[in-house]
Specification:
The protein is of the alpha/beta class and about 375 residues long. It has helices at about 15-30, 60-75, 90-95, 100-105, 135-140, 170-180, 180-195, 230-240, 250-255, 300-305, 320-325, 355-360, 370-379; strands at about 5-10, 40-45, 80, 110, 115-120, 130-135, 140-145, 145-150, 155, 200-210, 220-230, 265-270, 310, 335, 345, 365-370. The protein folds into 2 domains: about 5-275, LarA, N-terminal domain (Rossmann fold), CATH 3.40.50.11440; about 295-379, Alpha-Beta Plaits (2-Layer Sandwich). The protein contains 13 helices and 16 strands. The strands form 4 sheets. Strands 1, 2, 3, 4, 7, 8, 9, 10, 11 and 12 form a 10-stranded mixed sheet that branches. The chain starts with a strand and ends with a helix.
């Protein structure tokens, strides 16, 4: 059976428009009751990277969260929500986004992701155990609400990657240290999803992010909400919208290989997906790997060839976020010249996880390929 992806036009975040679009998408998939039931505890997992207002298009829009919650509540299920953002407190971040206020108004309770439990996963292809937020483990099912965005490490961040937030707090940094190359990182994310098994994914693609994502990019109007119970198929559909080859996205290739979902056998229902393709969507289509495929730290090739995060001193406010989130010990980006001036990267220590770029609040860090890397790639 092919995977089914519902594609619904939604050109605005007007609350009633989004509610109708989400309802239509659910109907195309057989209705909300296909995924949740009245006696179940269902956890909603938005993409909550950091506290940022909706106009920054960093997080799942509160109108999409509201629409999904309202439709699922009609089944009689008990709803909660939670996430573990990359930086800062989840509840504080959600208040800035507007999700916390929507959840309170709808009676959707906050589930703190701070505490976790170790879970054995012998079926894992790469990872045999995870520490998962207790709120995820205590729920009967999870519905994930990703945002259509680009990403420096994984090229795009969608339905599969959204579950990385189910790993509590700073434990996410440990995964970056253990798996500095993008292939192994993607494999870990696929195993994580094979363990959690979200019931449904609803992607906010009304206004996506392109370029220097997942935080420092630019808004791009796409005008679509897509949903599926097959997360790999949904991410493949997102790549189609971005005009990005899904074969370049490890969470898709390994997701299909390891039977998480299908990227090649997909049935689209609803509106014609080709009507939403943005041919010039600013995404990384280079065949060059985004990391060094696990080469030892400090190698000459790593310093001179592999893409690396670069701080723009004209934009940097020396806030220290990049220093705080660097998972390397000793840090690969630090106050080499003292606080109050831009931090400095030591590329011999840098594992190319791009956490600094991902979480920079001033959009002052970009990922650039060194001159030798550009020359070799052209050849």
């Amino acid at each position: 059976m092919p995977a089914t992806v519902a594609v619904v036009r939604c050109d605005t975040y007007d609350e009633s428009t989004v509610y109708d679009a989400v309802g239509r998408g659910l109907d195309l998939l057989g209705g909300a009751s296909r995924f949740v039931h009245d006696v179940e505890r269902i956890l909603l997992k938005p993409n909550l990277l950091v506290g940022a207002t909706p106009d920054k298009v960093v997080n799942t829009h509160p109108a999409v969260f509201s629409a999904v919650a309202r439709h699922l509540a009609e089944t009689g299920a008990t709803l909660s929500w939670g996430d573990s953002p990359g930086f800062g407190n989840a509840l504080a971040a959600a208040r800035k986004v507007g999700i916390a206020q929507v959840a309170e108004a709808l009676g959707v309770t906050y589930a703190d992701f701070a505490d976790g439990r170790q879970v054995s996963f012998p079926e894992g292809e790469l990872i045999k155990q995870f520490v998962i937020a207790s709120a995820v483990l205590d729920a009967d099912g999870l519905v994930t609400l990703p945002k259509l965005k680009t990403h420096a490490l994984t090229r795009m961040t969608g339905a599969v990657k959204n579950q990385f937030g189910c790993v509590p707090g700073m434990l996410k940094g440990e995964f970056h240290m253990r798996m500095p190359d993008v292939d192994r990182f993607a494999q870990m994310l696929v195993d994580l999803n094979r363990l959690i098994r979200p019931r449904l994914a609803v992607m906010d693609g009304v206004i996506g992010m392109e370029g220097n994502g997942p935080r420092g990019g630019d808004p791009r109007h796409v005008g679509v909400i897509m949903m599926s119970e097959d997360l790999v198929a949904l991410d493949a559909a997102a790549c189609r919208v971005m005009n990005l080859d899904p074969a370049l996205v490890g969470t898709i290739t390994y997701g299909e290989r390891w039977n998480l979902g299908s990227a090649t056998d997909i049935e689209f229902v609803g509106d014609d997906i080709d009507g939403f393709v943005v041919a010039d969507y600013n995404a990384n289509r280079s065949r060059q790997a985004t990391t060094d495929s696990g080469k030892p730290k400090g190698t000459l090739a790593k310093r001179l060839v592999v893409p690396r995060p670069v701080i723009d001193p004209a934009k940097c406010t020396a806030c220290g976020t990049c220093v705080a989130v660097c998972p390397v010990t000793p840090r690969a980006v630090d106050w080499a010249n003292g606080k109050g001036v831009p931090p400095v990267h030591d590329y011999a220590k840098c594992i190319r996880c791009y956490c600094c770029q991902e979480l920079c609040p001033e959009r002052a860090i970009d990922v650039q390929v060194p001159a030798l890397g550009r020359l070799l790639h052209r050849k």
